[in-house]
Amino acid sequence: EQPLASLIVGLSGVLAFGLHLAGQIRQIPVTGLAKDPLALFKSNKTAGLILVIGLMVQALVGWILSLGGLG
């Protein structure tokens, strides 16, 4: 098992998603966000796409590690 590799992939996905959301928060007025907290996801299709890609990469790395690869 390579827990470090999966941890790095997971953290990089979270970091990319967090940075993306931070960029979106700056573009949405605070009052609008207070009225509709999900506006970040409604206004930007790529937010969901980033999450899906991150999960796919994590699953792929988990599968490779389960086969004994990368080590």
Mean pLDDT: 70
- The chain-level structural class is mainly alpha
- As a percent range, the share of helical residues equals over 70%
Globally, the shape reads: elongated
The domain tally reads 1
Low-confidence stretches: none
Order of helices and strands: HHHH
Q: In this structure, how is the largest beta sheet organized?
A: none
Intertermini distance? 8 Å
Number of strands: 0
Report the β-strand fraction as a percent range. under 5%
Number of helices: 4
Q: How much is the radius of gyration in Å?
A: 16 Å
Search tags:
single chain, 71 residues, mainly alpha, 4 helices
In a nutshell, what does this entry contain?
By secondary structure, the protein is mostly helical. It has four helices and no strands.
What topology emerges from the helices and strands here?
Blueprint: H1 3-27, H2 30-35, H3 39-43, H4 45-66
Helix pairs in contact: 1-4
Structure description:
- The chain is mainly α.
- It has one domain.
- Helix 1 packs antiparallel against helix 4.
- It is elongated and about 50 Å long.
- The chain starts with a helix and ends in a 5-residue tail after the last helix.
- The model has no long low-confidence stretch (mean pLDDT 70).
